[in-house]
């Protein structure tokens, strides 16, 4: 299980204010992520990646490393210089024997699209061949690593028209492609007998996030109608800023303006009221103008009761 | 283009005497490999790997690194301690955009089998999907990296019965599987239009080496009936040992005994008479008792004239 | 704060049985080390090192990495092959801004001597220059990194006669040099005002371990007469071996023979009775014949009450 | 021997246009640096570093890696995004047993000052202790690695008043501190008997470069009155830009404006007339307004004849 964070705002933030300076940053989450569902691998020390965009309509930049985020000098120095209004960040714990390699670090990009995943596709090995055969040649050959997450991205890309050549996408289009990706994975997992409601059931945790540099679509999803998905929270306000010198940050809420939206596996501030849990099996859209929409994913795992009662 | 070395003997050699102490070792070849065919990437600084067996019938051990071999302290320290009678070593230069990652470092192993490759499969991208679909599920899922070389190993494995469960193989069996691997690659390359004798022709350089810990089979091969393959030499004698303190090594030849066989992309000693060039498109077998056999690979690229005249 | 382990026995153990297979191995301690005194940096993910000897009277071999131990393929493969009767192992968490670099990974060696440290020298920066000026030229120039631990080793070396040229040392000699090292550090820390009994007091945690390949001397020590030092346990018996297939290990105690001694920052087995806490401010000697002696370190921090009541 | 490059201009350049896209970039120089004086270590594959400033009066940013520059994905991606009007870049070949570690990668920074070095201090080990003892405590403790180059930077810093606290320096001040650094090194090397005109003479190659983000001072220097120093060239013009799509770059010279100055160990373009060799034992200043001044370093190694005849 890994951790991710995404940030979108009207004006650029210094990456340090998001990634390295907050006492409860995603970097610190590398050490201590209490909300994880899976306790077998408690440390996100198997690499990390950050992606950011400088201007809409251009490809983002990615920096990845197989060294733990918390001791990476390059990350610390870059974070003090780079500003961006759209940031993805991910820390990784290897699962399922997947190698620690830069090619297995999130996020990935393809054209202007950027993708990351927190969770895992249960029984991925049993649908990997099926998934590969569904990809067109260009997307098939673009895969550099061995993770289920990168393969899910490849599947997502194959749901879009001309994913490499275009500068931007409507958020509706990304929304639909995301739903189709999850539906297709479920169909194959069912066929492969991975998800068998009556008997054993290997769970998939599908917290995906994708952006074209303008809109963001992400999900909190699990292949179960009873269990909660891996945690995912969001917060919005006028500015994400330090409260004190000690690394304590707050989401300021001046004049009810919504200039910043943050989605993260775990709250980044100690102020609980800043954060809303995204309900399980829900898709979240951040529009280019920073409106946030939540949509239930109404498939066979949809459970209105869970939606209303759990986090 | 990379470089490899394999060593088999009746009694163990200290790895340092093979890998780090010789003035003209494969480590130094990382810097300066004058016999390479391809000059676009003149430095084998993109990682290396060594594999060795301690006793027949057990799995070998592999040490790989994405750091250049020449400055790797762990390699230098291990080489001063580890002894083995069967050693594979490989230094790597990335080609074709393949990532520098440990999962892309040679050699690979599967059960007791160990594999490395010097060269590349021309037009590999055009047959990759075909190759994957020919693999059984277990071998398909064992692939960890993205290189053509590892995929060729997977194809080789699929030519064997029960490649994982067996302790050893006859050298005839490895020999046949190697020929079938090359034949199968050629068939697919032809079908994909990669190798078109009349028009453009993307060459494959297939210097493969495989061992089960007892026999060794390797090839010097090119998909051309005119051009020479990537260089490959062998030497045999009673002992590979230092001549002086200055790093100069010799293949000693006491009593005409054949206790050591070395195959390498480039001679390891300055004494030219120690080394024989393996002819192009020839397969070499080292039997468990250290007999060496050369077999022409008589397919459409076989050229008796080249066999008799070139190195 | 880091973690270490040392193992000495009459017959070699496969490193995997010590380092990677035990459910509660030092590798797993990288994730979850509950007994640590210092909670600021809860993860030992900043590199590791192992050192081992194959035969008495020769230099040991060291393998270090800045990648976390738990995902290091080379470590896992080597551990399945290497056997040794004298092993040092260390996992590291960076402290005090020290860089993650191979040159800062424990253990270090000098001639036949090998050294590691769990803890830190409080206020090291204030005595660093003093320490360097006390070293002879050869030892001064041998320092490759920036850690307090390596500098403490250099100081220890300067307490011995001809530390590089000799094959072995008596354990009495190592014992005395260790005491003099701690005494010298204390003297300088006092002079620099770091250790001020009346006012602020920056603590040093000096769990040191040293071996010449035959004897082992280690300490559990703190510059305080009240507080406990960083934890350190030992266990002895006839064999350290797996109890079940699930990774559970035990210290077997057949015939009251003492063929194995293990000292570790944290117990390696779940059987509490296997392990004795080494009292605070005590030096432990393992003789070449595997006798274990404990000696109180009777300086100004010695506290008989703590010795008798605490772990 | 290593290689360096520095770039200063009136308007920012995309790092890719300086570092990764030119056919003869410093990255390619990692492979093939024909002008090197020392042939023992022909490959600059032991790490690299780049430093750049975004605005005058702020600290620069540094990105270093121990992996070879030519296969570093992060470098390639960053170079496509980052723009700067003042860039330092360095590729490294380890010498004298210095470890490959990030802390040993150039450039280094201290406050707003940035430093790199091509060459080596001959006999550095014999003056290291002397040098350390001349540093004040803060500079002494700031040293993170073991290279002669970083120690020379520390010495340079100790020639300045308040090197950490100030935003900028006059170029005259940097100029004087550089001369005093070289003079001090020479004095110590003489005292230590390293430089003995009559007998053996261990050479120092001191191509240093320093900047405060506004001015640049660099040297081409050798401790010999006869031999040439390590090569150093400069070029100036109106723009450094691609001529063709094939990676060929030129220094454009529109209207005789001097908007760009580049200093590099080897010419970056194939047009020889673009480049002037900086004479041996000369100091070059680039003022904030891009004026370039050359000053002979008139010490005992000054040789007017060499100045007028050699490159």
What does this structure look like?
The structure is a homotetramer of 311-residue chains. By secondary structure, chain A is of the alpha+beta class. Chain A contains 8 helices and 15 strands. Chain A has helices at 15-19, 26-29, 73-79, 128-133, 137-142, 148-157, 171-191, 304-309; strands at residues 3-14, 48-53, 61-65, 83-91, 108-110, 113-120, 205-211, 216-220, 233-237, 239-242, 249-252, 260-264, 276-277, 282-286, 292-296. The longest helix of chain A is centred in the middle third of the chain and has 21 residues, at 171-191. Residues 30-42 of chain A have low confidence and may be disordered. The B-C interface holds B 54, 59, 61-65, 73-74, 77-78, 80-81, 102 and C 54, 59, 61-65, 73-74, 77-78, 80-81, 102.
Tally of helical segments of chain A = 8
Biggest sheet, spatial arrangement of strands of chain A: 3-2-4-1-12-9-13
Oligomer state of the chains in this structure: homotetramer
Greatest interface (CB-CB under 8 A), with counts per chain: A-B, 17 and 17 residues
Report the C-alpha radius of gyration of chain A, rounded.
Answer: 18 Å
Strand proportion of chain A, as a percent range, falls in 25-35%
- Secondary-structure class of chain A: alpha+beta
Run of helices and strands of chain A: EHHEEHEEEHHHHEEEEEEEEEH
Distance between the termini of chain A: 18 Å
Low-confidence stretches of chain A: 30-42
Largest sheet of chain A at a glance? 7 strands, antiparallel
Query: What is the approximate shape of chain A?
Result: globular
Helix content of chain A: 10-25%
Average pLDDT of chain A: 87
Organism (chains A, B, C, D): Coemansia guatemalensis
Protein name (chains A, B, C, D): Glutamine amidotransferase subunit
GO cellular component, one term (chains A, B, C, D): cytoplasm
Domain Glutamine amidotransferase type-2 (chains A, B, C, D): 2-311
